[in-house]
Protein 1
Amino acid sequence: MRIALACASIAGASAGPAYAQYAEDVSASIEVATDERRRGLSWSDGDPVVRGSILIPVAAGLSLEATAVSLWGAKRHGGADAVADLGAAYVRQTGGWRLRAQARYHLFPGAAGQGFGELGAGAGYLIGPASVDFHAVYAPRQSSIGGDNLALSVSAAVGVPGIPITVATWIGRSSGDARDTVAAARLRPDGSYWDYGASVDYLKGRWSAGLRYTDSSINAPGSCHTGATLIGRVGLSL
C-alpha cells in the first residue's frame, strides 16, 4: 500500500497514473492539494484543487478509471473549470514485474476544444520495500495540443521500515512534434524539457498526507507555474 501511494503521488506530479497492483474491489478516494502539477506543469494555475478518483474492476487485470480535478478557470486549458480523466487500464503481474497498459482521455468542462487522448505503457519491479517504475505516455497528433506529445519517466519509491512513510523520487522527459506552436505550448511551453522531483507520503488507515517537491527545466519567457514548488496534500480513501 505504501508503494502504491507513493506511485500515485508521483503520478499526480509528473508522469502519469500509478502503476499499482490489480484491485478486486471498487475503490474511491478524495483529496485536497495546494496545486495540480503534472509533468512539472501546473494545471490549476498554481491554485489549490479538490480531486476525486474511482477505480472499477471489470475483469482480471482490467479496470475502468476516472478522476475529476477542479481547475477554477485555468488559463493553461482555455479557462476550464475542471479536468475529467477517463480511461481503462490493464495490469499484469509476472514474477517480480508489474506491467501496465492504459488509454485515457482528458475532458475539460467549461472550455471548448481542449480535450485530448493519451496511450501509455509501463513496467515496474518490486525489490523488498522498494519499487522502480518506467513509464511512457504518448498523445497522438491532436489540434488541441498542437501536435503530438511523448512523456518518458523513471520513478523509484521506498517504504521506511517500521513507520507508514514512503519516500519517492522521479525524473521525466517530455518531447514531441509541434505543428501549431501556440497550441503546443500548452503541454510544452519551452519545447522539449525535463521535470523532476521528490515526495514524502504518510498513510494511516484510510487517511493519507504528503509533501511533494517538483521542478522543471522550462525557461521560456512568460512561462507561468512551471518552476520549483512544494505541494501539500491530504486524502481519504472511501
Protein 2
Amino acid sequence: MEIKEKILKSSIKLFMENGFFEVSIRDIFKQININKSAFYKYFKSKDELIYKVIEEFCSPYFDEIIGATNLCNESTKKKLKTIFIKYCGIIPYLKKILNINKFNYIAVTFITIEGLKSYENKNLVNDFNHRLLEGIDNVVEEGKELGEVLPEIDSLSTSKSIVSMLQSSMVLWAMNQNIDINLLFKTNFKYLWKSIGVSPI
C-alpha cells in the first residue's frame, strides 16, 4: 500500500472512531509510523487531508445516493423512498470499505454533511447538494406529470425540504445513537409522502 493511501485510510479510521477535532496530525504519524516530512509530502494540512478523505471515501457514496433513482424504474413513491434508504446507509457502507466497527457518530455527520463547508474547496459538497436537489426535483416533477404527486405541490420547494429533511435527520441521529436511524428515515418518509402523494402510504 502506498504511503498516501495508507495515510488516507488510517486518517478516516481515526476520524470515524475518535472524531475529527480530537485527532491530531501527530496521532496520524503514530498510527502509521511515519514522520512529519512524509505526511507533508502529500498533504499541506489537516484541512486538505479531510477534503481528500471525503473525496476518496465519501464521494463515491454520494454518487450512489444520486444515482439511486436512475436504477429504480418504479413509482415516484418508490424512487423517493430509495433515496431515503440510500441516504441512511452511510454507516454500513463505511463499515464495509474501511472495516470499522466503532464510530464517533458526530464525526460521521461532520464528514459526510458539513465537513467541507469550513474549507477552501467547497466544490464537492456544493456539487453533491446541487445534483441531489436536481435529482429529487426531477422525480417530484415527474410524479406530478404521472398523477402520483399532488398537482399543487411546488416541485423545487418540496425538493429543498426533502434535502433539508435528509440532512437534519442525520444530524439528529448523530446526536443520539439510541435513535433507530432506519426507523427515523422510514417515519420521515411516511410523513413526507402523506403530504405530497396522491396514493396512500
Protein 3
Amino acid sequence: MEHVVNAQLRSVVGKKRAVRRLRAQGVIPAIAYGPGVEKPLNLTLKKADFMKLFKEVSESTPLTLVVNDESGKEVLKHMAFIKMVQYDKVTDEVKHIDFYIPEAHHKMKINVPVHFIGKAIGVEKGGILEVVHHEVVVEALPDRIPEVIEIDVANLGLGESIRVKDVKLPEGVKIDMEPEDVLVTVVVPRGLEVEETTATTESVEPEVLKKGKKEEEE
C-alpha cells in the first residue's frame, strides 16, 4: 500500500508568531532533507490529512512525499521516511515533522520496530519474557527497509535468549548492532530456579543408590 504525504513549500521560516498562526489554521510545519535533495525544503502539511496517515505508519514506513509550490505546481515527488516528530509538551499535539529523503541506490540506517510473536515455552513453565530491544537499527537500500521485523519466541526456553545473530533477515538487510546483543530473553524467577534444582537432585539420587546396591551384590 502506498502512503502519500502531500505538502506545500513554506515561505515562513523561523518566525515563531507566523508559525503559531500556521498551526492555528490547521497546518503542521515540516522540513525535508537528505541526500535525495539538493537542499532542505521547508514545508507545511494539512494537519487533518497527516494525522490520519500518521496512525497507520511508523518511522520505517516508506512514504511518497509530494511537494507543490504556492501555485500548486509539483516540484518534488520522492520516497521519504519520517525522521523525527516534535510534540507540544503540554497538549502532546504534533508541532513539527522532519522527513528524511534518501538516495535511491545508497544504503541508509533507520530504526525498525521489532514484534515478538508466539508464547515462549519458558513462559509456560513460569519464566518471564523480557524484551531488551523493541526496535533495532537496520542498514539497507531504501526500497528494502522492512516496516517491521517479526521474531518468533515460541521455542525460547527458561534462561534462553535470542540475539542479533539469530535473527533471519531478508536479503540485503542488516541489523547494525553487535551480533551478541540480546533482543529478548526468558528470565527465570529465583524461586522457580531453586525448585528446578531440587527436582533435578531428587531424580538423580535413586540412580546412585541403585548403582551402589548392584555393586554390593557383585
